[in-house]
Amino acid sequence: MTRLDTTHDPALRSWVESANDPATDFPIQSLPFGRFRLAGSLQAWRVGVAIGDQILDLTQAAELAGAWTDAERERLAPLAHGDLKAFMALGPIARRAVRAQLSQALREDSPLQTALAGCLVAQSQAVMGMPCDVGDYTDFYTSIHHATAVGKLFRPDNPLLPNYKYVPIGYHGRSSSLQVSGIGFHRPQGQLKGDAPEPRFAPTARLDHELELGALIGAGNEQGEPIAMANAEQHLFGLVLLNDWTARDIQPWEYQPLGPFLSKNFATTLSPWVVTMDALAPFRVHFQRPAGDPAPLPYLDSAANREQGAIAITLEVWLQTAGMRERGEAAVRLMQSNFRDAYWTLAQLVAHHTSNGCNLRPGDLLGTGTQSGPEPGQGGSLHELTQGGKQTIALPGGETRTYLQDGDTVILRAFCEGDGHRRIGFGDCAATVLPARAP
Q1: In a shared domain, residues 113 and 256
Q2: Residues classed as catalytic
Q3: 58-78 confidence digits (pLDDT tens)
């Protein structure tokens, strides 16, 4: 696990004044990575670090004469070339070294302030891209509260399948339809059956969001070489927010016997900033199964995972309808949960995924599955919050929802906070539902 160091000091302040705002998602204690370019330009994607409401352009920063030692310049090289994936592949030692290097450069009274000030780009003037090109995408099912709530809708007497507490359930998703926050998508179409004698092809009437985190792999493993729990965290680069949009009326007809397909592969939205595992170190917490539950099998267990394998991340879903936008009304929060309640940790996902010899590669994405909490109203999807569409959610202006309508914008948000630590956030993960295209 990542240890705390001087980069986590809550007293640190930056010469970028907006980074010192207690409400910012991006203080100097965070320093997440993302890819961007200037709005309206056709320049190649650049890698930057979010600091307050600014972006430090690492291409420009790396070129500053006399700013860095030879070793520091070498560590920045893949970032300077806009290749975040190549940097991710270098592993945690290089990542922590660059974090320390940038932390020093962005602190108050840094001798590099004058030089680096010219390398800042306002986030409002930038267009964000996907953090990196994702080769493979696997989605897991780590929230027992979500699994139980959804299971009750289909199997009231036996909601949780017998394998759930023994094996991290997952399926292989579609990386080609991953998209960055801010890009809308068209309502999908598919086969709908319900209680009718025959299926029909039509746009989904039960479009839903799913509140998830996505873990990006840094250094990979060779095919045939499993990653042990003791080393699993070393292969994780950082986290993003992830919305695994789902067509609930397409899903039940198609998912047996091979699992999710067209009900999920039409769009998956990611937040653009990757919050590194190092930034999350102050928010690691004890991981423990409920009393009476089976202990993880040995290959999914370690003392370090039990001690601090969970991460306390507050997760939220917000909704703004087209009508709310027209009336000038802000989005409303639908729910809040916490990633510390997940039944499986990130290290366990990595260990299990590779336990059969599967090779993970830099930039691969592991979704956590919908993160729901144990209390009523903490469902990470409308499917849970409306009891499968049986209950409506009241919204401002007299509107109601059971599932998403065209023009709805869903915004995922997340943050970490705790006594003695600086609050850090993830930035928004947002997308708007567009009308279905004519067949």
Answers
A1: no
A2: 146
A3: 999 999 989 999 999 999 999
